[in-house]
Design goal:
This protein has two domains: about 290 residues, Aminopeptidase (3-Layer(aba) Sandwich), CATH 3.40.630.10; about 110 residues, Alpha-Beta Plaits (2-Layer Sandwich), CATH 3.30.70. The protein is about 35% helix and about 25% strand. Strands 1, 2, 3, 4, 5, 6, 13, 14 and 15 form a nine-stranded mixed β-sheet that branches. Bound molecules: zinc ion. Zinc ion (ZN) binds next to loops.
């Protein structure tokens, strides 16, 4: 296909949006429904309008720009919210590339049979009520309880956050009611890992997205004096956690290579120089492309913790905070993208994703596809997030050509 994205315009859009929500720490802080986010929303709607797209915003704050057609809608997008002090490409790149694709279709007056839409989903980063608030609202899998439990990391509830805005818990729950039927959903995103860069490939075609479990866990022992309590009489909760973290990591690395387990946050109580820790609270994050593996690990981790507890005289408890299932991306979409890569001589590799994306939520209602481009050193969620514009040019053109194929 001869049609190409206008790379200068796309670059300019990314740079412009990156000025909204600048953090004094050097990055971008644009959580959904913040002041910066509302400014970014106005900016985006302005761009959609200038591009001649029909704008729609739902009760969850998801923003859409549409080119009319007949039949089911072919949609592409991502999110414009960021983590606190994040980078300029995570999410924004997917929304603005999709916008650029639709602009090019309009400029070339291509007559495609199906409608095309660009989508920007609210709170993908989960700053408010768990990951993917907007896309989950879009497909209708939220409930009141999830929203009422939602809190920002600063302790504000979701309903407080929405006060004085045009949105409410009710409007979020209603958001899915007037959605168009979808033919397919495509997303382009930075990889957020080092594989493409290491393999020297500008394009990754994602064939599956890992399922993940977030648990809050705790070992309870007994706090005692660090100078006077002999080792054999201690019930050291931190040593229980150390055994646990090592054992679990070794087990996953040897029996389920490619799956992941991480202890990311630890609180020791009482937390002092001279006291043997009586309690260790920690987060447990484990992910896999295989549902069978996740089910096995769900049983394995507590049983290891019980063994350690009985040896060390501890008590173990755990609570599931969040849980998503692995998603296999449909062959049909991967094939369309492969064909486009081959025709354009874009080097690519088929790759699983360890991180979650809106595309995995959309996969619940339509055929969903995800394109990765490399990011320098695999860094994301950081002001250091960086891409090579040449990779984006290939990725955005691949998105354009794939949208055209699907909408023809
Ligand atoms: Zn993202």
């Amino acid at each position: 296909m001869d049609i190409q994205v206008n790379m200068e315009r796309l670059k300019k859009d990314l740079q412009e949006l990156s000025q909204i929500g600048r953090d004094t720490a050097g990055g971008i802080s644009r959580p959904s429904f913040s002041k910066a986010d509302f400014e970014a929303r106005r900016w985006l709607k302005d761009k959609l309008k200038t591009a001649g797209l029909k704008i729609r915003e739902d009760g969850a704050g998801n923003i859409f720009g549409r080119i009319e057609g007949k039949g089911k809608t072919v949609m592409a997008g991502s999110h414009i919210d960021t983590v606190i002090n994040g980078g300029m490409f995570d999410g924004a790149l997917g929304v603005l590339s999709a916008l650029e694709c639709l602009r090019r279709v309009k400029e070339e007056k291509l007559s495609l049979s199906k409608p095309l839409e660009v989508a920007s989903f609210t709170d993908e980063e989960g700053n408010l009520a768990g990951d993917f608030l907007g896309s989950r609202a879009f497909i209708g899998t939220l409930n009141k309880e999830i929203l009422e439990k939602g809190k920002t990391q600063f302790g504000t509830s979701l309903s407080q956050t929405l006060k004085d805005t045009e949105f409410s818990l009710e409007s979020i729950l209603e958001a899915h009611k007037h959605q168009p039927e979808l033919e397919a959903f495509l997303e382009i995103h930075i990889e957020q890992g080092p594989v493409l860069e290491t393999e020297d490939k500008p394009i990754g075609l994602v064939n599956s997205i890992a399922g993940k479990h977030f648990w809050l866990c705790s070992f309870r022992g007994e706090a005692s004096h660090a100078g006077t309590t002999p080792f054999e009489l201690r019930h050291d909760a931190f040593l229980g956690l150390s055994d646990f973290a090592l054992k679990c990591t070794q087990y996953v690395a040897t029996h389920h290579y490619g799956s992941m387990v991480t202890v990311g946050k630890v609180y020791l109580h009482p937390g002092a120089f001279s006291v043997v820790p009586g309690r260790a609270d920690f987060t447990l994050d484990f992910r896999s492309q295989s549902q069978k593996t996740l089910q096995e690990l769900e049983k394995y981790f507590p049983s290891v913790a019980q063994d350690i507890s009985s040896t060390r005289g501890l008590k173990f408890s755990s609570k599931i905070i969040d849980k998503t299932e692995p998603v296999a991306m449909p062959e049909r979409i991967v094939e369309v993208m492969k064909k486009n890569c081959q025709e354009n001589d874009y080097p690519f590799m088929v790759i699983p994703s360890g991180a979650g994306h809106d595309a995995q939520i959309l996969a619940g209602v339509t055929d969903s596809g995800l394109i990765f481009i490399p990011c320098e050193d695999g860094i994301s969620h950081s002001p250091q997030e960086k891409i090579d514009w040449k990779d984006l040019k290939k990725g955005a053109n691949l998105l354009l050509h794939s949208l055209i194929r699907l909408a023809e």
